[in-house]
Amino acid sequence: MDAKKIGRFLKELRKEKGLTQEQLAEILLVSGRSVSRWETGTNMPDLSIMIQIADFYEVEINDILEGERRSESMGQEGKETLSKVAEYSKSEKDKAVRAGNTAFGLMFALSAVLIIVQLIVTKELWTVAGETFALLVGGIAYIGIMLYHGTWENGSGIQSTPAKDALMSIVCSGIFSAA
Q1: What is the Cα–Cα distance from 122 to 177, expressed in whole angstroms?
Q2: Cβ contact 37:101 at 8 Å
């Protein structure tokens, strides 16, 4: 599988429809940056999105995976199997995202509790304020990483968004700093 060839083919299909990357992104409910990455071969769409792309462009998924039009047809049974695999893949990805968010939340809460305990024990506000700042920077870095990897582009069962998560990080850090 040649990602660059697939990217060129995806770009060709988009151009045939007369769409910009942003217009396609709106149709597929992803970011324009994702479409750009697919077309340069830097990244590949998830299987569930690839099925949507094939349907939208009226080509076979095999064509996309080969990076060119072919005359062979996948058949209904093959499409159904591929759809099931895509659903399973999305389900597993969602579980991983939830697990990562839960782990981050637990570590954030544990760090906050330890900072509060340290403040009570040492009564050194500046040291604790510095550690709280470090915790806030860590939260912001986490959100940046999540944005970079497109966590919020495809959605998940937890209805997490960058704005909600950033606000939660700021609120938590503010509460912990005030304590």
Answers
A1: 15
A2: no
